[in-house]
Design a protein that fits this description.
Elements: H1 4-20, E1 29-30, H2 32-39, H3 43-55, E2 59-62, E3 66-69, H4 74-98, H5 101-119, H6 126-144, H7 147-161, H8 164-168, H9 171-189, H10 193-217
Antiparallel strand pairs: 1-3, 2-3
Helix pairs in contact: 1-3, 4-6, 4-7, 4-10, 5-6, 5-9, 6-7, 9-10
């Protein structure tokens, strides 16, 4: 028999996937009973999963109305990306001093997988690419031995994942992102901290620019 905690975690992951994939749109109501029926479980674990996602900012509860998918404002996106600049740059520069051959090959394996997604014909697995993108930067924090930095990155990356579909759906941006990760990896191999930091910053800034463009196309002010 599954423990209650594992059922709650499964429900949370299911809801996250629905939000990240765009199946649940910003502003859409999410009903306990519908989710419970979809998963074949009772409502209490769904209620607990809702609480977790409310705390993380993915859902919002409106008194007497229900639970809805929250929307990210221009300020939210700006805050996420400016924090990514600071955290990712810190992680990669700290990691270079502690990088072993095995660590480098771990990062290389991640970049290889990212390139395979980009080069694969047909529809791209954007969510998988975004997972690898985040894994690359979280791995640099792990190599650096900075536990708190990695945890903060994981939380931030989880928030950023929900807007990845829009930006990485642009083939040009997807390819450019992949090229940047290969260049960052080469700078890491050369132990060139300045270049690794510069490339990391450029990579994230370009992502922010794309998000601003997408936001304005929706008629929203950034």
């Amino acid at each position: 028999m599954l423990k209650v905690e594992s059922i709650v975690d499964s429900a949370r992951k299911y809801l996250e996937t629905c939000i990240f994939s765009g199946e649940y749109k910003p502003g859409q109501q999410v009903k306990e009973q519908e989710v419970a029926s979809s998963l074949g479980i009772s409502r209490p674990p769904i209620r607990e999963a809702f609480k977790i996602l409310e705390a993380e900012g993915f859902l919002r509860r409106e008194p007497r109305r229900g639970v809805f998918v929250s929307d990210l404002t221009g300020v939210d996106i700006w805050e996420i990306y400016t924090l990514k600049i600071a955290l990712y740059c810190l992680a990669v520069t700290l990691a270079i001093d502690k990088m072993s051959d095995a660590d480098f090959h771990r990062l290389e394996g991640i970049v290889d997988e990212m390139e395979a997604i980009v080069l694969r014909p047909g529809k791209k697995d954007i969510l998988k690419y975004e997972d690898l993108n985040h894994l690359f930067h979280e791995t640099t924090a792990e190599i650096a031995g900075h536990g708190r930095l990695r945890k903060i990155q994981q939380s931030l990356n989880n928030q950023a994942k929900r807007i990845a579909v829009g930006s990485f759906s642009d083939p040009k941006h997807l390819k450019e992102s992949c090229r940047y990760h290969r260049k960052i990896l080469e700078a890491v191999k050369a132990k060139n901290k300045e270049l690794a930091e510069q490339l990391t910053r450029e990579h994230i800034v370009k992502g922010l620019v794309i998000q601003e463009e997408l936001f304005r196309k929706k008629g929203k002010s950034f």
